[in-house]
Design brief:
By secondary structure, this protein is of the alpha/beta class. It has 10 helices and 12 strands. Helix 8 links the parallel strand 8 and strand 9. The two termini are 37 Å apart.
Length: 282
C-alpha cells in the first residue's frame, strides 16, 4: 500500500499555491531546502515530476496539479475532522480587515483553512489600506485587522515583512532620473519608507502613479512605466526584485500586527486570531 504523508502533501499544496519553494516553505514553517527535499522524495516514490524547476520559476506539472487538488481536499478533511471533535458547535460572524498586499499573499490560506474547519462561522473581509482600517477598529466595524503597524493602534506582533523595489523585466526604467514611482496613497507606511530611503540617498524621483490598489501598482510596474516599493510577500513571480546593485536604496521592513477591536472577545474571533498568529508568525 502506498502512503501519502499529509505533511508532505501540505508542502506540495503550498508550493503549488505560491509558485515558489521559498514562499511555500514560509507557509508551512519549514526551510526551502527541507520542502524541496521532501517533494523530491515524493516525486521519486511516484516516479513522476510534480514541478519543473528553473532558476527563477517553478511550474507545476499535470501530475502535480492533480496531486495538489487531492491534497487540498485531504487537508480540508483533516481540518474538518479536528474541528468536528474539538469545536463542533462554534458559530457566529467575524469581520476582519486587511490591506491588498497582505490579502493577496498572507491570508488566503489561513482564512480558507478557518472557513473549512468552522463552516458555521461567517467570515467577512474588508480590504482597505492599513491607515483606513484603524478607525474601523476603533468604532468596532471590524473585529480583527491584519495590518501594518499604524500610529494609534496597538496590535500583537506577527512578523517583520521585508520591503523590496520591483520593476518590469522588459524595461530597465529604474535607471531613469527622476525615478518614476508607483506608490500607495498618502498615509501608507510602505510609501513613507520608500520616500524616506530615496531622500536619504539623494535620489530624485517623481510620482508616476498613486493608488490604494496593489493591482494598480503592479499593472504600472508590469508595463514598465514605474518601479514600486512593495512588501516582498506580495510581489508576483514575473516581476524583477531590485537591489542596491541596481542603484536603489535598501528599504526598512514593515511590521505586521494583528489588531483587535473592543468587541473581539468572542470565541470565533479568538480562534481566528490564534490561527493567524500561529500560522503567520516567523
Amino acid at each position: 500500500m502506498k502512503k501519502l504523508d499529509l505533511d508532505v502533501l501540505e508542502m506540495v499544496v503550498a508550493v503549488a499555491d505560491t509558485g515558489s519553494f521559498v514562499r511555500g516553505a514560509e507557509l508551512v514553517h519549514r526551510s526551502p531546502s527541507a520542502v524541496s527535499m521532501q517533494v523530491k522524495t515524493l516525486e521519486d516514490a511516484l516516479g513522476k515530476p510534480l514541478f519543473v524547476r528553473s532558476t527563477r520559476n517553478v511550474a507545476i506539472t499535470a501530475e502535480g496539479k492533480t496531486l495538489a487538488d487531492y491534497g487540498r481536499r485531504m487537508l480540508a478533511m483533516r481540518e474538518e475532522a479536528w474541528a468536528s471533535i474539538v469545536r463542533p458547535e462554534m458559530k457566529g460572524r467575524v469581520t476582519i480587515g486587511v490591506p491588498d498586499d497582505y490579502a493577496s499573499s498572507l491570508l488566503p490560506q489561513v482564512l480558507g483553512k478557518f472557513a473549512l474547519a468552522h463552516p458555521r462561522v461567517e467570515l467577512r473581509v474588508i480590504g482597505l489600506p492599513s491607515s483606513a482600517l484603524a478607525p474601523l477598529l476603533k468604532d468596532n466595524t471590524l473585529d480583527l485587522a491584519c495590518m501594518t503597524k499604524t500610529r494609534g493602534i496597538s496590535g500583537e506582533f506577527i512578523r517583520f515583512e521585508p520591503m523590496v523595489w520591483v520593476g518590469s523585466p522588459v524595461r530597465r526604467i529604474w535607471t531613469e532620473r527622476p525615478l518614476p514611482l508607483a506608490v500607495f496613497a498618502d498615509g501608507s507606511t510602505a510609501r513613507a519608507h520608500a520616500l524616506r530611503a530615496l531622500q536619504r540617498e539623494g535620489i530624485k524621483f517623481r510620482m508616476s502613479y498613486e493608488s490604494p490598489s496593489l493591482l494598480g501598482l503592479i499593472s504600472m510596474v508590469q508595463a514598465g512605466l514605474a518601479v514600486a516599493p512593495l512588501a516582498r510577500c506580495s510581489v508576483p513571480e514575473h516581476l524583477v526584485q531590485l537591489t542596491q546593485s541596481d542603484g536603489l536604496p535598501e528599504l526598512d521592513d514593515l511590521e505586521v500586527v494583528l489588531a483587535r477591536s473592543a468587541r473581539s472577545s468572542r470565541p470565533p474571533c479568538e480562534f481566528l486570531a490564534d490561527q493567524i498568529l500561529n500560522e503567520l508568525r516567523t
